[in-house]
Design goal:
By secondary structure, the chain is α/β, with parallel strands linked by helices. It is built from twelve helices and nine strands.
Amino acid sequence: MTDKLTVSVLGTGIMGAAMARNLARAGHTVRVWNRTRAKAEPLAADGAFVAGTAAEAVRGADVVLTMLHDGPATLDVMREAAPALRSGAAWVQSTTAGIEGIAGLAAFAREHGLVFYDAPMLGTRQPAEAGQLTVLAAGPVEGRPTVTPVFDAVGARTVWTGEDGGAGTATRLKLVANSWVLAVTNAAGEVLALSKALDVDPQRFFEVIDGGPLDMGYLRAKTGLVLNDGLSPAAFAVRTAAKDARLIVEAGERYGARLDVAAASAERFERADAQGHGAEDMAAAYFASFEELKGDGKEKGEGK
């Protein structure tokens, strides 16, 4: 399909705003909506129409793309949009909603005659802005020519996991991938926390692992955000990481896997959020190792 589409983007946070920009750059007609309108208004400069309501945003759209906080928030917004949804339109659901959440969203899609695609994204702020996300997608083959231009505009690669979006196969893969990302993020923070507690220069640790199998770019990136005061703006916020960690734990419990690391990760993210770091990058879970580190009085080179 080469024709340009009308795409409605509901939710213009870190990811949604970047995706909307890339869709507009690809030549699609883009309508955006966000509950806090101020977060959507800058997209007008990129050629997007900023709608006042979710219903206004989706009216006549070929594709509705949702990138909201969680499953319940997504369902609430789609209910608000319901009177203007066009039967037969494609719904690309990109929120990390969890397995139970996807089932409810798929049921809504059936009730309103929408072609449902479960399509969470792998990547954070920088790849989203560059249009280099990895799209994990499940949905009917016959509708893929409509959604493929959307995926091509926001991502570098699409990995198809099945033909039934409601089965949640893409969401399941996203939870598996996020379980690794969140675990590594917290391990990186604890390396710095233990270094501080034991009065070890963290650079000595990096020297020890340099170039070996224990070294990894992600470790360097996340510790660098803490050490170099780079936690804002967030690539992936603490509060969102806490939500995803809980979804991972719930999925494990539902299917008989005890995930102790994921449970501990959720607790660390929630503790960092309670300390006032919820809007910062998830690397700020570092602060959950301490009772008193809350931004003020930070030591040089240790972030906020």
